[in-house]
Amino acid sequence: MTATSNAAAGAATLMPLLIHLLRGASDLASVSATHAKLLKLGAASSVASSNHLLAAYGRCGCTALARHLFDGMRDRNVVSWTALMSGYASAGRPRAAVALLRAMARSGVPPNAFTFSTAASSCARLADAGLGRQVHARAEVAGYACDSVVSTALVDMYGKAGRVGDARAVFDAMPVTARNAVSWASMLSVYAQNALGHDAIQLFAELRTNGEDMAPNHFMLSSVVNACAGVGRLGIGKCIHGMVLHHGHEDNDVVAVALVDMYSKCGIYEYSKKVFDRINQPSVIPYTSIIVATAKYGLGRCALALFSDMVGRGVQPNSVTLLGVLHACSHSGLVDTGLQLLRSMRSEYGIDPCASHYTCAVDMLGRAGQLEEAFELADEAQVNGNDALMLWSSLLSACRNHKRLDLATMAGQKVSEFTQDVAGALVVMSNAYASAGQADDAAAVWSNMRRRGIRKDPGCSWIEIKDISYMFYAGVVSPAGSRAGEVMLLLDELEGKMREKGYKGRIGSARVLDADEEEDGNHHHQEGRGVMVGVHSELLALGLGLLVIPKGMAIRVMKNLRMCRDCHEAFKVISAIVEREFVVRDLNRFHHFRMGSCSCNDYW
DNA sequence: CTAGGGTTAG
């Protein structure tokens, strides 16, 4: 045997081993060691082994080395290009990954399905629908748009970019045979991630009825549970929990976290806690979700205890966790603890406070009535853009709540420096004037908004009755179709009884708006005629609940904005009059009304 | 050889 054929024989036996080593390697040291061995064997230069090396370097995040290798290759095939692209994508450089698609076209190597799915998922990371559409078009031309994986990646891409309709169009255009568990799960998550819980639930129901016995996997289940959480569908959520148990996914942490979140958002903290307690060795995300849940129920000290438990177990909190703990302090009036936490975030946990932490802390001070301190902190925060808008808007509402019109004007000034969507802030401003008795000024803000064509999302509430949810809008007098009259009569009657109980407020109050406006911040009530023209959406939902939900069952109402003080008072009094429990989930937290008082102790 | 899906907040 000659020397060369000896080496060739060695290479032939060693190659499979080395390739195997490369495939399993995810650290630079072992990849480069194997690379060296391949070089020694003289077997590193073939396209196949170069591709393996390329992919391995990509997997361990060494895009520079992968690129160097790629540039030095004599021949590059579609795998070489795709491996490099994938390396860029997983190294957090999705823009560079997509750019390779054009470079590839110029060099005359046609992409395959692997290439398109990698490119599409890179666009998903960028949440760039424009770029994604270009990838989609190229895939279409090349005949890969119907591929199962490619179309699933496109569904995900459109979804992440917020183009739900486009995502659904891709999903619907898929050949039925190409639609598998992953594509269904992707479409479900598109809905769930875009706050379209009702659509997710409906699609899941379609899968159940004509899905050819496709068992729900943990991806689908976590998305649907997430969807139930978003829209507060406790009934369906419980049912999905049953399916989780039935299919043996209760030990999956992601599913468990989704359940913790769902129960907490549907008003049953005890179930959240139960699901959380089953998770062994909870990581930062389960801990964060239970802390946030605990905070929402106003159990501030309990949330702090969970936090120290977590830290004690060596679980590193992240930025979201700290935001949750700050929320806990805020909702329970633990102002000093909250401020200490904000000040020690960097030194204790290595996390720099960002705009949301400052906003939360400013909100906490504002709620507690420490408005001067709140202003100081707001000035110190140095936030920009939309973050600043949120921060100053929250301060503006604090000024309003504490009837500090002097400071409100100052905060209003700050808010107006930001030219984005200022509708919410203007509404708060107008309410500040209204509650200070300056109705003309309040009306001026409104006419200003009308002139500038600024609209605000209407406040709405909904209630689930026998697995159907009924939606109500403030000022709309026809809730749930035919029962509108009954609801209005009931509320009218309740208002009378509330007065007997010494309730000073009204279900309706002085109005500032024109009749055609349906603004949540204002009640409509025509004095003297005893006719309720409009009323807050949560009261309409409560009215329907009182009519149809059997006595003894708590009435659960969901709302997309914060509950106003008047409604909060009304709910308290009504809970005493009718001797029932109400649970209201508002934008931020839960209110549990019982026997004339609320779990938040009027602090929220 | 190279590809697709789920969780905490806002």
Automatic annotation (TrEMBL):
InterPro entries: DYW_dom (IPR032867), E_motif (IPR046848), PPR_At4g14850-like_plant (IPR046960), PPR_rpt (IPR002885), TPR-like_helical_dom_sf (IPR011990). GO terms for biological process: RNA modification. SUPFAM superfamilies: TPR-like. Coiled coil: none annotated. Residues 526-604 form the DYW domain. PPR repeats lie at residues 77-111, 180-214, 283-317. Residues 1-24 form the signal peptide. GO terms for molecular function: RNA binding; zinc ion binding. Keywords: Repeat, Signal, Transit peptide. It comes from the Eukaryota. The keyword Magnesium does not apply. Transmembrane segments: none annotated. This is DYW domain-containing protein. It comes from Oryza sativa subsp. indica.
